[in-house]
Design goal:
Number of helices of chain B: 20
Number of strands of chain B: 4
Number of strands of chain A: 13
Radius of gyration of chain A: 23 Å
Order of helices and strands of chain A: EEEHEHEHHHEHEEEHEHEEHEHH
Oligomer: heterodimer
Order of helices and strands of chain B: HHEHEHEHEHHHHHHHHHHHHHHH
Largest interface: A-B, 30 and 26 residues
Shape of chain B: elongated
Strand order of the largest sheet of chain B: 2-1-3-4
Number of helices of chain A: 11
Distance between the termini of chain A: 6 Å
Strand content of chain B: under 5%
Strand content of chain A: 15-25%
């Protein structure tokens, strides 16, 4: 079980979501297997993975749309199969596809979804606030069929948030929208988190992992790892990546000495004067390297921590899972992630 | 309390959503209202209750005079047949039919008069090329009616001729009565020569009367075919023969002896002659067409207004439209929700399947009410379709049909997988309704076990009840309330269960 922590979580407080050995396998063989996860309140958890990795299935299990074939799942301390109306009022769900009514206006759609939760649709303040939140004020009388795809996604988000749920499941909310709008979405998610809400967000944009408190990586229906964004990089490459560029071509002895000083697990010559080192912690290795180079009067152009893009991190993780690691999941996760915060 | 308020909020949300959705499609609304109205208008204006005269060609190979007479008589039937001419062979007539130049060809029998004289029926054969069984039945009916009419016209002419020829009898019979009276007086007075004279005279007169009636014997026989039971002529004919024989038995040579028997016989003969005279007057007074066809037939509908074809079909059209809209709305509703993916959101939200259905019912009923009100107003005003019963009953039947139809639609919607399937099933229900609801074909023409299918359709009850309310001013029958009310409940429950199942299964 992967137990996450949050500043908003009180010691001893129940997680808003707890999955243990949850499995849902369809007749085709697709689905999700052995999902173990605990999510505390007040966090953003990103479910990241390629298409068909099981992200949407996981969300549907968590919302009670699907029933697991095995395992135990508790959301807001209830089994999703037995959600009562009161529990459902605390949930918000934004499906992957648009569920807006094209013949209704922006306002009418919002009113409709608000009414599903018994929200006072007649209160103009609540509607206006929701529209402002997604920057759709001024478009409220337009029909949904007349607005852009990006505006429709924003409206979907507003419809999900209108009743101010505690726990939100957002299935690929940023799919198909431009980078500027994606950034705005994540700003909104962060605002919601700061208001104590919990968000479980699926995305195919691996770069968006950086906005999450925790990232759960899925591939082929398996949960590969759950980590913080930084932890994810470390998990992918076995530690922090440090890039060193010498003023002159280094000889093999110097390279070996640098490796020893930084205690690098990996050392790769990436150019005539460049080295790529994988260290346990860049914050420790870099000062040690700097001191040693000064003592030995070795001139360098540059020595800094390299932050590989999450795309590379993700590819690395999935490649390891698919091709390089025959071990059972728990062992594999241990190898990939290290001892970090995993149970 | 809060949950109750939330329930109404959710139901209201679905109702509003459906109403807005329909209102945002003005062309759909216009089509729903104007479409059926224009169809009914076109039907009312274009449909002829009386069929066009049949373009007729005669096929004759012999008696030209008879054919000419036949054509002359058939010309009287110009509203039924339009005579194009005469051809010599059946093949020629078939050519006319094939070319579409004629509707029917009448093959005149060979030597028709001689055939009749032989005591056989001369049969006319009618050829046509219609495939439609209704058209075939119509032609058969018109052919039979036309031949009957021609037969009657011939008989009427014969009877009229007989009446004319019997004019002399009106002078002969009173004269015979006078002779009989004079004969009786001579017998009473014992005047043998006078008695002999009057007996000869009476015998001559009776012979003349017999001859006169004898010339109309053929006519009398013809008439007897049709009204033998009521004919007075049968009595006239036999009585004359009897009277002649009776007169011959009067023995005038016995004058001077007791003649009580002869005198009383003469009194009876006088009475018989008086009766014959009266009967003859009656015979001459009755018009030939009444003598040939003494019985006519008229029909009158009890407890209802006279209806034209448009008015008769108006309730059926409204009911079919309401049903079709209800089924289509309901049928497409859940399918479209599924296509949009909203059931997934509904499953996560606190909304209950019953609230979804109730909201949709209200929304669609509101839309149907607008269409029904507009259409009813147009029909009542533009076509003067009578609504003699209660407006409330009329509205209640339509509302109940609307609710049932929406329920049927929801059941369809929960079963099918796509818009196309929903529309196809709706069209099948429409077809079923057109044929079995009594809209187009009377239920009396449907065999008993199939009629149970008819009465299983809610629309059958609705059309039946609407006709009673509109045209007979009758209240809604209990069986209609049970059928439509029960149907509404049944389909609501079925729709609810299927929707719950669908929401769980998806």
């Amino acid at each position: 079980m992967v137990t996450l922590t949050s500043p908003a979580t009180h010691p001893g407080a129940s997680p808003v979501l707890a999955a243990s050995g949850v499995e849902k396998v369809f007749e085709s063989g697709d689905g999700i297997r052995a999902l173990d996860l605990e999510v505390p309140a007040g966090t953003i958890v990103g479910l990241v993975g390629p298409s068909g990795s099981g992200k949407t299935t996981a969300v549907r299990l968590m919302t009670g749309v699907l029933e697991p074939t095995a395992g135990s799942l508790r959301v807001l301390e209830k089994d999703p199969r037995d959600f009562d109306a009161r529990t459902r009022l605390r949930l918000g769900y934004m499906p992957q596809h648009s569920v807006l009514y094209p013949n209704l206006s922006v306002r009418e759609n919002l009113m409709f979804f608000a009414s599903l939760y018994g929200a006072e649709w007649a209160q103009p303040g609540a509607l206006r606030g929701a529209l402002e939140f997604v920057e759709l004020d001024g478009h409220d009388s337009k029909r949904v069929s007349e607005i852009s795809g990006g505006m429709q996604r924003r409206l979907s988000l507003a419809a999900t948030l209108i009743h101010e749920p505690e726990l939100m499941f957002l299935d690929e909310p940023t799919a198909g929208i431009d980078p500027i709008l994606r950034r705005k979405f994540w700003d909104r998610f962060t605002q919601l988190k700061e208001r104590g809400k919990t968000l479980i967000v699926t995305t195919q944009y691996v770069g968006e992992a950086a906005y999450c408190d925790y990232v759960a990586v899925l591939a082929d229906g398996e949960l590969l790892t759950v980590e913080t964004p930084d932890g994810l990089r470390r998990a992918a490459f076995g530690g922090d990546v440090v890039h060193v560029e010498f003023a002159q071509r280094p000889d093999p002895e110097l390279i070996e000495q640098v490796r020893e000083v930084t205690a690098a697990g990996e050392c790769e010559v990436t150019g005539p004067r460049q080295l790529r080192l994988v260290v346990d912690e860049a914050a420790v290795a870099l000062p040690a390297l700097s001191a040693w180079l000064g003592e030995h009067d070795v001139a360098i152009e540059q020595a800094e921590e390299s932050l590989p893009p999450f795309d590379d991190v993700f590819v690395e993780l999935v490649s390891k899972y698919r091709h390089e690691d025959p071990l059972p999941q728990q062992d594999r996760m241990g190898e990939l992630i290290g001892s970090g915060q995993h149970a | 309390m809060r949950e109750l308020r939330n329930t109404f909020t959710r139901i209201g949300a679905f109702a509003r959503k459906e109403i807005f959705d329909v209102l945002r499609q003005p062309r759909l609304l216009l089509t729903l209202i104007l479409g059926p109205f224009l169809i009914l208008a076109l039907f009312g204006l274009g449909y002829r209750q009386q069929s066009e005269p049949l373009r007729t060609v005669f096929v004759t190979s012999g008696d030209g005079d008879f054919t000419q007479q036949l054509q002359d008589r058939a010309n009287e039937l110009e509203h039924r047949i339009d005579i194009l001419g005469t051809v010599g062979t059946r093949a020629e007539a078939v050519g006319w039919l094939r070319r579409g130049a004629a509707d029917v060809a009448v093959i005149v029998p060979v030597e028709p008069i001689e055939t009749v004289r032989r005591g056989e029926r001369a049969v006319f054969t009618v050829l046509h090329d219609k495939l439609d069984p209704f058209e075939q039945a119509t032609i058969s009916l018109i052919a039979r009616g036309t031949v009957d009419l021609v037969n009657r016209r011939i008989l009427e002419e014969l009877v009229a001729s007989g009446q004319e020829e019997s004019e002399d009898l009106e002078t002969l019979l009173p004269a015979a009565q006078e002779s009989a009276t004079a004969l009786r007086a001579a017998l009473e007075a014992g005047d043998a020569p006078e008695a002999a004279k009057q007996r000869r005279r009476l015998g001559t007169q009776l012979s003349l009367i017999q001859q006169q009636t004898g010339s109309t014997e053929v006519l009398i026989d013809n008439i007897r075919d049709d009204f033998a039971a009521t004919s007075q002529h049968d009595g006239i004919s036999s009585n004359l023969a009897t009277l002649s024989a009776d007169v011959d038995t009067i023995d005038v040579s016995a004058v001077g002896q007791p003649l009580d028997h002869e005198i009383s016989e003469m009194e009876r003969i006088e009475q018989e002659l008086a009766m014959l005279s009266a009967s003859l007057r009656d015979f001459r007074k009755v018009p030939p067409d009444v003598l040939v066809s003494p019985f006519g037939a008229e029909s009158d509908v009890v407890g209802a207004t006279d209806l034209d074809i448009t008015s008769f079909y108006a309730p059926g059209v409204i009911a079919l439209l309401i049903q079709h809209i209800g089924i289509t709305f309901g049928g497409l509703s859940l399918v479209r929700e599924r296509a949009l993916g909203t059931p997934e959101v509904f499953r996560v939200s606190p909304v209950h399947a019953a609230q979804i259905l109730a909201g949709k019912y209200i929304g669609y009923l509101a839309a149907i009410a607008v269409v029904a009100a507009a259409l009813s107003l147009l029909m009542l005003q533009a076509f003067s379709v009578p609504l003699t019963g209660s407006n409330a009953d009329y509205a209640l039947v339509l509302a109940a049909l609307g609710v049932t139809s929406i329920g049927v639609g929801f059941v369809i919607s929960a079963i099918v997988r796509s818009d196309t399937q929903a529309v196809n099933v709706s069209l099948i229900v429409l077809l079923l309704s057109i044929f079995f609801s009594g809209f187009f074909l009377s239920l009396d023409r449907i065999v008993a076990w199939v009629r149970s299918v008819s009465w299983a359709l809610p629309i059958t009850h609705a059309i039946d009840s609407l006709r009673d309310v509109m045209f007979r001013a009758e209240p809604i029958e209990a069986r209609t309330i049970i059928a439509l009310g029960g149907g509404s409940l049944l389909f609501f429950v079925a729709g609810l269960m299927l929707l719950q199942w669908r929401l769980r299964a998806e």
